Amino acid sequence: MKKVGMQICRLAERTVLRTGGFCFLYRVENINQLASVVARFGKFYCLGNGSNVVISDSGVSLPVIRLAGDFGKIRFEGNNVIAGAGVPLSFLIAECAKRSLDGIQNLFGIPATVGGAVYKNAAAFGVSFGEKVKWANVFRAGRLRKISGGEIGFGYRKSSFLKSDVITEVCLELKEERREFIEAEMRKIKLERIKKGFIAAHGTGCVFENPKGYFAGKLIEEIGCGSLRRGGVSVSENHANVFSTSRSFLAKDVFLLSEEIKKRVFDAWGVFLKNLIEFWGNLI
Ligand SMILES: Cc1cc2nc3c(=O)[nH]c(=O)nc-3n(C[C@H](O)[C@H](O)[C@H](O)COP(=O)(O)OP(=O)(O)OC[C@H]3O[C@@H](n4cnc5c(N)ncnc54)[C@H](O)[C@@H]3O)c2cc1C
């Protein structure tokens, strides 16, 4: 068996949100390599594209697993597409469009991997990834299991997968549609995302969950937190539930700004905002 590639690397260079100090990164290319890393360490972080995780500036002590090789493959079976968890979501959408497969184009532009999109049940413009999942393969408790879409609990930006699970492959059930129609929708979605400022490299996605019956962004804006900033991070001008990041900012800034906002929203509205973004490691 080919040895697993381990690197000591700065996560800020490997994540969409550009945060994270040094870590031991294990790039696994197949199930055997994944099984050996999981068996060796027991506890680990599984990193997708790093678009929803803010990682400590001093790094993390647990090993970080990243899926590559076999986990980056796509195959088509009729109207089903089977994608490795390491495939970039927008690439998958473009490949489906080429084959006239309709259903996930509204998610175009979300800077996720397929694994991260399932785990977080990524959603946009009325479509959620989870609703298209026919089955998923997951490495759990030392073996690979196939779980049907109906057995997976999908909720608002979450799924019932465990922290110790590694999703390896996903099958989506799509419909046939004209390629031109799907591609026109992708272009429309792309423009909408640019207009709303939901673009990677400029900042985060939504930082907080919308509490039942409220919009987090509205609660933040209405108490004048729309111009708050900490270090190199500020509340976005386009959307108060999104943070903009400067060229040089710290993970700590994101954490401190989110904590300040949670405190102010609770004091003003009595509503507790929950993080949608995950924080890894020691932030302060
Ligand atoms: C500019 C921008 C715009 C965004 N717009 C949207 C949007 O419109 N809609 C939306 O829903 N989200 C959006 N997001 C948030 C983010 O892209 C999603 O949450 C996405 O699903 C995360 O995928 P990822 O591959 O980056 O996962 P990561 O951020 O790397 O990881 C997120 C979580 O998933 C887990 N994970 C990743 N891969 C696996 C795997 N193979 N097996 C098990 N667990 C895994 C990680 O351990 C972690 O807990 C946006 C983010 C940014 C920066």
Overall outline: globular
Question: Within the CATH hierarchy, at the fold level, what is the topology of the largest domain?
Answer: Uridine Diphospho-n-acetylenolpyruvylglucosamine Reductase, domain 3
Which small-molecule ligands are present, each listed once?
Answer: flavin-adenine dinucleotide
**CATH architectural grouping of the largest domain:** 2-Layer Sandwich
The H/E string reads EEHEEEEEHEHEEEEEEEEHEHEEEHE
Structural class per helix/strand content? alpha+beta
Poorly predicted regions? none
The main β sheet shows up as:
5 strands, antiparallel
Gap between N and C termini: 41 Å
Quote the average pLDDT. Answer: 96
Described by its quaternary structure, the protein is single chain
Helical fraction? 25-40%
Task: Give the total of beta strands.
Answer: 21
DSSP strand (E) fraction? 25-35%
Number of H- or I-type helical stretches = 6
Broad CATH class of the largest domain: Alpha Beta
Order of adjacent strands in the largest pleated sheet: 6-7-15-11-12
Notes on the protein architecture:
The chain has 284 residues and is an alpha+beta fold. It folds into 3 domains: 5-69, Uridine Diphospho-n-acetylenolpyruvylglucosamine Reductase, domain 2 (2-Layer Sandwich), CATH 3.30.43.10; 71-195, Uridine Diphospho-n-acetylenolpyruvylglucosamine Reductase, domain 3 (2-Layer Sandwich); 202-280, UDP-N-acetylenolpyruvoylglucosamine reductase, C-terminal domain (Uridine Diphospho-n-acetylenolpyruvylglucosamine Reductase, domain 1, Alpha-Beta Complex), CATH 3.90.78. Helices cover 25% and strands 29% of the residues. The strands form 7 sheets. The protein has a 5-stranded antiparallel β-sheet. It has a 4-stranded mixed β-sheet with strand order 1-2-5-3. A 4-stranded antiparallel β-sheet has the order 17-20-19-18. A hairpin with a 2-residue loop joins strand 11 and strand 12 (143-148). The mean pLDDT is 96. It binds flavin-adenine dinucleotide (FAD). Flavin-adenine dinucleotide is lined by residues 16-17, 45-53, 67, 85, 110-113, 115-117, 119-120, 122-124, 157, 161, 165-167, 198-200, 204-205, 278.
